[in-house]
Write a structure and sequence with these properties.
mainly alpha; 80 residues; Arc Repressor Mutant, subunit A
């Protein structure tokens, strides 16, 4: 699965971006420079073979949210 190739830092940066933070805000929050944050996004785009933030949102929805929803449904089914 593709998520295995994303580092913990890249995952955190992605999640912060998906929450609506700007790259500058992410840099301030993580104590990194905006250049470093930009580099994290470039690395993620290459690893996921995407071109922009819209594709990042779509990838996240298709890969992460879908997995989490399936896990939640499986857990609920076990509780029945």
């Amino acid at each position: 699965m593709q998520t295995q190739i994303i580092t913990k830092t890249e995952d955190r940066v992605i999640r912060l971006k998906l929450q609506g933070l700007s790259r500058k805000e992410i840099a301030e929050l993580t104590g990194r420079s905006t250049g470093t944050i930009q580099r994290h996004f470039q690395n993620v785009y290459v690893k996921l073979q995407i071109q922009n933030e819209i594709e990042l949102y779509n990838w996240y929805a298709e890969n992460i949210l879908d997995i989490n929803i399936r896990k939640m449904l499986q857990t609920e089914a076990l509780c029945l």
